Amino acid sequence: MMDAMLVSTGMAVWTVLVHMVGLGSLLAVARFRSSRIDPHGSILRQALFILIIVLGLFVVHAVEIWSFALVYLALGAVSGLEEALYFSTSTFTTLGYGDVIIDNEWRLVSAMEGFTGFLMIGWSTAFLVSIVGKLRALEADWLDRPRRDD
To answer: What gap in Å lies between CA 119 and CA 98, rounded to an integer?
Structure first.
């Protein structure tokens, strides 16, 4: 059990670090691109901006899922890479089909992955809502400005 607790703790810390660096990088990209986004201009640019952020979040979560999958593979808890990725993805997203089961010795790791995945997806959702909210706030600011030709 101690081995599973150590692996679980290490993976939780690793996942939070990956997520923090990933969101920090996406925030840097957003700040860099923000000068090129006119909230009153091209809807296509706004959509592309949001798409970049969403795809970035997808990549961050993929790194986290792959990390757990590689740990399951290294521990011998699953029989192959495809099974490790499938199990990790369904566990991280808390879907948990239950058609792939790992050894009891390592089930604490999968429980921690489910908990960590739940938190990371929530954190990503909050990040995305914040980014879109700032974009919409800029639009609202523009709508509230007095017109000059009055």
So the answer is: 21
- The 10s digit of each residue's pLDDT in 7-60 is 999 999 999 999 999 999 999 988 886 666 555 566 787 788 889 999 999 999
Residue 72 neighbours by CB distance under 10 Å: 26
d(CA 125, CA 133): 12
> 104 is written with which tokens?
């009891």
What letter would DSSP give residue 93?
T
Distant-in-sequence, close-in-space partners of 53: CB < 8 Å, separation ≥ 6: 26, 29, 30, 128, 131
Which residues are CB-contacts of 139 (< 8 A; sequence separation ≥ 6)?
A: 39, 40
Q: What is the CB neighbour count within 10 angstroms for residue 112?
A: 21
**Do 82 and 99 contact (CB within 8 A), yes or no?**
no
Q: Confirm if 77 and 103 have CB atoms less than 8 A apart.
A: yes
